[in-house]
Amino acid sequence: MKNTLSRRDFARSGAIAAAALAAAPSDVFALTQQHVPAAESPIRFGVASYTFRNFTRAQMIAFLKQLNVLALNAKDVKDHLPSDPQQEAVAVADYAAAGVKLHAAGTIYFPKDEDADIRAKFEYCKRAAIPVIVAGDPAPETLPRIEKFVKEYDIRFAIHNHGPEDKLWHSPQDVLKAVKNMDPRMGCCIDVGHTARAGADVVQSIREAGPRLFNVHMKDLADFQSKESQVAVGEGAMPVKKIFEALIAMKYQGFVDLEYEIHADDPMPGVIASFAYMRGVLAGLR
To answer: 71 forms bridges with which residues in the sheet?
Structure first.
């Protein structure tokens, strides 16, 4: 039933989405090229580099060009954005040469309540001119210390919720409660899949986050009770249209990054289908 509802919504979202539903893989690729120019689009799409964790930086850059998505949430995985300063400089130069914008880094983990460890992570992002840190597991007691570095470096700190398995940050509401009285650059990265699995309303969570929402990780699930039910965006139960409507209504300035975590050795078919669907939904909202 959930898949049927998703397809019905897909068909309503516009000509591109309707075509993508029945298109052959080669045709779906062509559909990914039909999108609103970045300067005009109310939603900015990006990719979480974890999607291509089994591929090198050069391979990932080639994939991004195929997708016509040149915005990246980079992670220190494979050789995507190494923490070593010299290797990082090479990566940054490669992205610049390819026209790829590094708009966030993560997920980055903060296991120590120590200045040296925290400063190293902020320096890592400063070297790459990255304005948003997507953070995985900062303990609540470390947040005041992290806040000092947010002020010093003027880098936004987006705590990523990881669903019911996360001991600290199940949902965006947990994050918002912790940062509500802190610097406005302390906020959240909403992972829509983990948010739904935590039992929170994804759209309402986006509205509640408001100006403290700095990044969105987009994915889809066939069953909100199952982490293992991830599918290409548009094939599951995620209310993508309502998510986009909420983001547009609040004039969200960040990126919606596709984080496609399945089929790690061959992600492009699902990634292509996901962008075709999302662009179709967005076209239907214009």
So the answer is: 101
